[in-house]
Every structure is written in C-alpha cells, then in structure tokens.
C-alpha cells in the first residue's frame, strides 16, 4: 500500500489509526477530535477548491456576498471588468472585518475601524488623511491589498482555493466533469440562484454530513422512509426493503472523492413507474420525462450544450444526488408535487465547519435561468419543502447527525469504527460512455470510501 | 436574479408591521377573541394536536418564512429577503407535512418538547369584512432528547385571521425570523 507522510496526534494516534485503509474503517473519534480539526482546516480547507456561491448572485459591478472558506471569511465580488474576486475579509491593518454586511453593492469596501479602503478586486485604495501616510512607510500600497484566493467559475458556480499553485480546477473535478456538465452546464443561459442561501447551524462535525454527501444512497431506505410512506418513491411501507426503490442505478465516483448517483426515474418514483423508455429515442425520452429542472421548451438547448452521449445519459439515467469533496452536496432531483406536476428540485449545499462540533448548513436553490417564471416558482417551493431548513427529507438528516456527534465524544464510543465494508468494486457497465470509477447495481459503500481516501490523501500531505 | 444592489427602497423587503390604520384596540371583544385563538393555536402545536391545528387553517392558506440577511448602509432596513424562504407552504403542503409527522418522521419521533410564547399582539381590520391583520411576536423553546440546552427561535408573525362560522381561521402567515443563520437545527416544527 502506498506509504505517505502523515501526522501523530498528542495521544500517539496516526492518520492510519484513524482511517484504516486495510479494513475500510474510520474511527468515530475523527468526528470530535479537536487536534484533527485544526489539521483539517490547514490541510483540507486551506488546500482544496471550495464552493462559495453562484455568479447570478452578484450580477452587477460592485455586487458582493460574504462567504466562508472553512473558518476564514471572504468577500466574493464582481469588479468593473466583470471579473469575480475572492478576498479575505480581514483588514491587513488591525484584523477587523472589512465588510460587515452579508451582501450588497460597493465600489469600495472601507473598514469601519480606521478607514482603510479596498476595491472590489481586493487592492488597497488608501487610508484616511492621505498626507499623513497612515498605511506606513515600510510597505507600498500594492503590498497592502486583501489576501486573495484563486478563483474558478464553472457553470456559474464560484469556487476558490488558497492553494495558489495547487491542482487546477479541472484536475480537481477529474472524470466527474462529464457528469456535472449535465447538471450545471446544459442550457444556453445556465442556472440561476433563486435567492440568498438558507443557512442554519447543526451541532455536529462537518464530516458527518460530509461523508454522507459521498453518495450514501442506502440511508434513504430507512432514514427517509417517509418518502415511501408518502407514496413519492416506489413501494409501500410494508415492502420498502423488498422493492428498495432508488437503490439500483450507477454510482459514479473518482479518486478526488466526488460522486454522483445516476438513477432511472422509473426505478425510483411511483409516479414514473409506468413510463417505459424501451425502444424510444433520446428525443422521445426527453419529451416523455424531462430531467429534473428541465422543461420541454429547454430540451433543444441540451443538444447545444452537451455531447450526444451526455444528453442520452441525462435523458435515460440522469445524475441526481451526490457530492463534491470535501463539503458539497448535490441534489438535482425529480420532485413530484402534490398538484401532480414534477418540475424537480435543484439544490446544492455546503457544510461549512464552525469548530469541531458545529457545522453551518448552507442551502443554495437553483432553477434554469431560461425556465418559465411559474416553473421557477414551483421549483423554489419544491426545494424548500424537500431540502434545507424545513425540507421534509433533510429534517431527518439534521436530527440524526448531532446524535452521531454526541456518541463521538464518548471515551469508549470514540474508538468504535464507521464501516465501509459493503463494497462492490469498480465495474464498467456495458455501453457506459462516461469515465471515472463506476459502481452499477445496488448502491454500496464504494463512493463514500473514495471520499475518505480523498480525505486521507489531503490529510497525509503536510 | 438576486439583486442586492437596488438603489430605491424596496417595499417588499422592508419590515412594515401592520398595514391597516384601523386598529382593533387591546381589550376589545375582537382583540380578546383573536388573542385567545393565538393561545389556542400555540397550545395545539405544543401538544402536537395537529388535527386541531389544521382545523384552524383556511384552505387558501399561504404560510411562508423569508430569509433574513445582514445588510448595511442604504440597504440596512431591506433585510427581509422574500426571494428565498425557510417555509414556502400552502394548505396542501401543510397537510403533507402533518401527514408525514404521523408516520416515520424521525426529526420529530421521538418528538421535541416545545413552548411557544406569543406576545406583543397587535390587531387591525383588513379591507375585507371579517378579516384581521394580526402581528405577534413568537419565541419558541425546543427541548430535544436529553439535551439540557434548548434550541430557541424568535420571530415576528404577520397573519391574516378570518372570521368563519364564529371562529377565527388562519389565512396568511409570514414568519419574520430574526437570525440570518438559524440556530435551530431544523424546522420540523411549525412556527
């Protein structure tokens, strides 16, 4: 097995004691250990690419939103040249927040403490009483800007990293780009963030929701049993485990730790169960059942923006849920409505660390920008009713994770291991066009183990 | 599009309190009956008598909770963001939620123990006869499992209650929460 540089915690535990690569186990103590948390902030959150928002939030020059990269707060801005910048929200003068609002428009961010001012691109304008040179005599103005992160905009999604010379964004996405394009880059005008994200705090470590976002499909059957009871997913309350709706598909993943569950609608949802794609062309399939978030008017746009193979997958077995390492959940799901429609729900979450025992759940809700207004309205409602703060699916997750957290503090419990031993092994389905590590059939632990391996690899690098 | 940069005062995001000038005075018969209804509603929800609560709702109910945002300068009072919500419900979706709560809704099974404190109630007449604007403050203490520290939430509720067959029924509720980042770990309870 690959040997890597690692670390030793003060009680002698090494990374290999925590993430047991030989037996596919992770010690529960990783969820509560404070030393480990500090290392994660350095080796994961200050190193990898992080999702901060969407460019439709800041459409005009000077628009900004304040977001978090781990526990470091940043200002995400658009400048006059239409470029997006991510700058640390820390005044280099005395450490005050330069920006005290969560969103707005400003062509200069002036610190309220002593008045040092900065442009949307983070560059230093000056300090008050210019003739007195209150920025000092030692450093020139070009050295006094806000600390800048490296930025990449993909499908309108704003990513940033402090790892200025680290892996490119394309290397970060790896083979997942083929699948993610089908969600984020499929229409002419792209996605639109429908409003500021929902935000709320959960009393648990970021990795508890994090590892679940590595495509834990299996929990759906039990934790989200109400989806079956409510008649949304196939099966009855009595036959949930026999029918196992939504468990069969193709889980796609990669060594970067990202994954997506590709699911056929007919296999998952009761209302689609009589739809047969047998012998139907891609165009016919799209007309019969457009993928989540796509309306019939938008179907021609799919062919403009995606390859024929990508459109075929989206029409047949679309990626629906999964996540990007380290802390992003993707839920682009069919969402049957009580009024009979199904326009889908498109949501991304980030799980932002707020200390070893707290995480901020940030819920971004989207629709296609070119979708009709009523569809956007329906989709907003679908996403709010299913995901996030009051979402009937994710209420149950939010109540479960803090209880795992509580266990992780027990002196005996902390050495219990999380087990990822229900493994399928990579297997390429016949005729499958996309790349990556592929796991067809019943959803198992492979993708989540890949998440932990991505974690291991970053944590092993000082 | 989320436009944070509007220069003009955006009425939709400014807190307005009561719109009507026709106040229903404290201590009047109507005020007392409405206040009693709010107390009855709080008791029904605290005691998880959801059928009793549903009987207090009108079928054209709109039930929402916009997100709040910390803003500054000229935008500082425009902090109620109705483009995004914590609740975006109607009567049908409330039925879906209460129906779920009677089955495998682990978020409330075992259930939270809650106390809803309703204060600062102000009432005014709407233009439609028999409809009343009711603004009240809500403070909820929520005890979960054996955790000694309660989760709490504070909000202003702007309601329209309608007199139907001798009883007041809820037709509109907008819950203006105070936190931009909620300290409550989910909203599996009604506000």
UniProtKB/TrEMBL annotation, chain A:
Domain Rieske stretches: 49-160
Pfam families per UniProt: Rieske, Ring_hydroxyl_A
Keywords: 2Fe-2S, Aromatic hydrocarbons catabolism, Dioxygenase, Iron, Iron-sulfur, Metal-binding, NAD, Oxidoreductase
GO-annotated molecular function: 2 iron, 2 sulfur cluster binding; dioxygenase activity; iron ion binding
Aminoacyl-tRNA synthetase listed as a keyword: no
Domain of life from the UniProt record: Bacteria
Signal sequence residues: none
Family per record: Belongs to the bacterial ring-hydroxylating dioxygenase alpha subunit family.
Family matches, as PANTHER family: 3-PHENYLPROPIONATE_CINNAMIC ACID DIOXYGENASE SUBUNIT ALPHA, CHOLINE MONOOXYGENASE, CHLOROPLASTIC
Protein name: Nitrite reductase/ring-hydroxylating ferredoxin subunit
TrEMBL record, chain B:
Alphabetized Gene3D superfamilies for the sequence: 3.10.450.50
CDD domains (UniProt xref): ring_hydroxylating_dioxygenases_beta (cd00667)
MF-aspect GO terms: dioxygenase activity
SUPFAM superfamilies per the UniProt record, alphabetical: NTF2-like
Keywords: Dioxygenase, Oxidoreductase
Recorded family membership: Belongs to the bacterial ring-hydroxylating dioxygenase beta subunit family.
Cited Pfam families: Ring_hydroxyl_B (PF00866)
Name this polypeptide is given: 3-phenylpropionate/cinnamic acid dioxygenase small subunit
InterPro entries to which the protein is assigned, alphabetical: NTF2-like_dom_sf, Rng_hydr_dOase-bsu
Any Gene Ontology biological process: 3-phenylpropionate catabolic process
